[in-house]
């Protein structure tokens, strides 16, 4: 029998947590909007609300999400964990899906998201995820599932797109923008975007910013613009895309980098961190450009800005740990791998985080980028807590650290590091699980 460590176990299982990056869940009327398999995989599927005529034949017959994800170890592990909460005997993926669909939505949410179930005291929600405005609950609605008020994380590319749309709309029916017209649009955009950043800086409900440059153009953001002309050229390309698709999506390198630099400057002045999606994501990212190592130049260029590397940067976790060790303004969130990665994989990732990353710079992010489904918060919480215990108890058993040190690492990772970084000024709710 391996030794047990009650003090460490109590910290892992019962200490309150700050979820430093998650997303809203679906509103009740949209609870079946997306394939439930998205709970355990970032593979792509389709919206169940779309008519089949809108989907390719291969998409209808199956996708990596609906066909392959249920055969992963992550899914096979999740089935009994979800089944236990649903009181199922010998649960299967299909029985879990059927049972959850029969439950009233408020009951389902409470079953998997109640603070006494997850131990989440405060959520920081990025509400800029595509589909949130149409299908999900507002950020303040989630207060019922935590014991401290929910805060927002502002996704800056979405803010920029919303600003650009009315500025470019008058030019849709004209010949391509002249350089003078493009320059005027850029100046108007800069003014409006700075105002939006200032508003977020001054908003007490905003805890920080987030960039999805990783998805759009890659993490190799240029610290200094090549030229104004390169930004104007990107702006013209955005207009052409707007003409062709009726949508604006920032996926043009020079302009994207410009948005990121403006955000980093504002962040450095106010102290609100900037989160970056790194590593693990869907097939919209270019994997070899999602490594946080590409951020090194921009990290050095903005030493006053606090950078948070999201999602354990998996599979580039060691590179992320290196950056946190050598730059004082870099922090690492070890999330999204719960529950996307197998149990052994999760333990390996935490070990890699702890190889080099200072333990005062580790942030717990429990869920699957917690979004759409309440079960994502539950699985993220129980799996992350268990993985922490497994790894740190092993380290204690080897005599490398004391049990007290291990418990302190857990309490800091779950709560205190994020509380300090995001300036939340919270006291830990030690009774969150109903313990005295």
Automatic annotation (TrEMBL):
Transmembrane segments: none annotated. Pfam families: Amidohydro_2. InterPro entries: Amidohydro-rel (IPR006680), Metal_Hydrolase (IPR032466). It comes from the Eukaryota. Residues 255-424 form the Amidohydrolase-related domain. PANTHER family: AMIDOHYDROLASE 2 FAMILY PROTEIN (PTHR43383:SF2), NODULIN 6 (PTHR43383). This is CBM1 domain-containing protein. It comes from Mycena venus.
């Amino acid at each position: 029998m391996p030794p047990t460590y009650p003090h460490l176990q109590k910290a892992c299982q019962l200490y309150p947590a700050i979820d430093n990056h998650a997303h809203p869940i679906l509103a009740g009327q949209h609870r079946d909007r997306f394939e439930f398999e998205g709970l355990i995989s970032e593979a792509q599927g389709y919206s169940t609300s779309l008519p089949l005529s809108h989907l390719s034949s291969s998409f209808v017959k199956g996708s990596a999400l609906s066909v392959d994800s249920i055969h992963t170890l992550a899914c096979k592990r999740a089935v009994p964990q979800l089944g236990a909460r649903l009181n199922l005997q010998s649960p299967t993926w299909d029985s879990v899906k059927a049972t959850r669909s029969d439950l009233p939505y408020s009951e389902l949410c409470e079953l998997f998201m109640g603070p006494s179930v997850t131990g989440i005291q405060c959520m920081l929600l990025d509400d800029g995820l595509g589909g949130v405005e149409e299908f999900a609950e507002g950020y303040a609605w989630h207060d019922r599932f935590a014991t401290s008020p929910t805060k927002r994380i502002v996704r800056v590319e979405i803010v920029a797109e919303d600003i650009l749309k009315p500025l470019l709309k008058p030019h849709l029916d004209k010949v391509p923008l002249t350089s003078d017209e493009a320059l005027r649009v850029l100046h108007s955009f800069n003014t409006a975007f700075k105002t939006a950043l200032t508003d977020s800086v001054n908003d007490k409900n905003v805890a920080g910013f987030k960039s999805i440059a990783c998805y759009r153009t890659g993490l190799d953001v240029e610290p200094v613009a090549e030229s104004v002309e390169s930004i104007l050229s990107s702006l013209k390309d955005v207009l052409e895309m707007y003409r062709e698709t009726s949508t604006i999506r920032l996926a043009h390198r020079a302009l994207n980098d410009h948005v990121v630099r403006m955000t980093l400057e504002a962040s450095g002045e106010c102290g609100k961190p900037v989160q970056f999606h790194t590593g693990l994501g869907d097939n919209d990212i270019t994997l070899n450009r999602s490594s946080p190592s590409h951020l090194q130049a921009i990290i050095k260029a903005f030493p006053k800005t606090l950078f948070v590397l999201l999602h354990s940067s998996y599979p580039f976790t060691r590179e992320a740990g290196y950056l946190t060790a050598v730059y004082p303004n870099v922090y690492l969130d070890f999330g999204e791998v719960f529950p996307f990665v197998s149990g052994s994989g999760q333990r390996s990732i935490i070990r890699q985080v702890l190889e080099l990353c200072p333990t005062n710079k580790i942030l717990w992010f429990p869920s699957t980028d917690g979004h759409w489904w309440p079960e994502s918060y539950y699985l993220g919480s129980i799996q992350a807590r268990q993985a922490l215990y497994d790894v740190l108890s092993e380290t204690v058993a080897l005599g490398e650290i004391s049990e007290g040190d291990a418990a302190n690492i857990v309490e800091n990772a779950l709560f205190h590091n994020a509380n300090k970084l995001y300036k939340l000024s919270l006291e830990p709710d030690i009774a969150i699980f109903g313990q005295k």
